[in-house]
Write a structure and sequence with these properties.
five-stranded antiparallel beta sheet, 11% helix, globular
């Protein structure tokens, strides 16, 4: 699954990594959530790569209500070609979703949920495989949206969840974006576990209201456990934490 992620790489480095003509207008984000606008790399009509901002939560062209997008933040790679919501996008509208890391929630011995930051061992920028769609309202309003494709978890992540986002290796960016290439099933294999790493982070990431660099700082799991085990009196206006996002199967 992929329900939260972060992207903080400098725009110039993003442009270099994805072969863009100019640095994109991205800002550091450390708690990107569904139904927000997110940057994706796609092929422009000119045949060049472009970075565009679209809403995370795919709305099929045939949808009557765009709110359906909240249920389509992820798409299972195994059924993309079968699902009416995704099969057209798979053929015509593939994209890459740049990321520096994503979050998963691990059940602790105490029964809580420990947020985990997951990324590359070398801390390199990477990309999820995604699909985009364009929806038109009866009034002619244009809404561009995307979904992130998932696959079976690799050995590193399987202890936290049985799914993980499909991560496309840089050498395969061109192949994934070129919709003339129809044989892409091998790209849905779980990304090699030995190239990835993870560590616990603060439960502040549970709330989408928090979006700052401290969210990706490592913490000891015991610190989070202590915060939940020792309640303290707080003023009525103190901010509260939202529960971690449910990591359920959508498709």
């Amino acid at each position: 699954m992929c329900g939260r992620y972060e992207l903080h790489t400098h725009p110039a480095a993003i442009a270099l990594a994805f072969g863009l003509n100019a640095p994109p207008a991205t800002l550091p984000r450390f708690n990107i959530a569904p139904m927000q606008d997110v940057p994706v790399v796609r092929m422009a009509p000119t045949g060049e790569r472009e970075l565009a901002f679209v809403r995370w939560g795919l709305v099929p062209r045939w949808a009557k209500d765009p709110s359906i997008g909240s249920k389509m933040i992820n798409a299972r790679s195994e059924t993309l070609a079968e699902k009416p919501s995704f099969r057209t996008a798979l053929k015509r509208h593939r994209c890459l979703v740049p990321a520096d890391g994503f979050y998963e929630w691990k059940v602790t011995a105490a029964g809580g949920k420990q947020p985990i930051h997951i990324g590359m061992k070398d801390r390199a920028l990477f990309a999820f495989a995604g699909l985009t769609e364009r929806w038109l309202s009866p009034q002619g309003e244009v809404l561009d949206t995307c979904t992130i494709i998932t696959t079976q978890a690799n050995a590193l992540l399987a202890t936290m969840h049985d799914r993980m986002p499909v991560i496309v290796a840089p050498a395969q960016y061109g192949r994934w974006l070129d919709v003339a290439v129809t044989d892409v099933g091998d790209l849905f294999a779980p990304f090699p576990a030995d190239a990835m790493t993870y560590y616990p982070v603060s439960t502040r990431v549970n709330s989408v209201r928090h979006d700052d660099a401290t969210l990706i700082d490592p913490v000891l799991e015991a610190e989070n456990e202590a915060q939940h085990a020792a309640p303290t009196l707080a003023p009525a206006h103190a901010p509260t934490h939202e529960p971690p996002p449910e990591q359920t199967e959508l498709f």
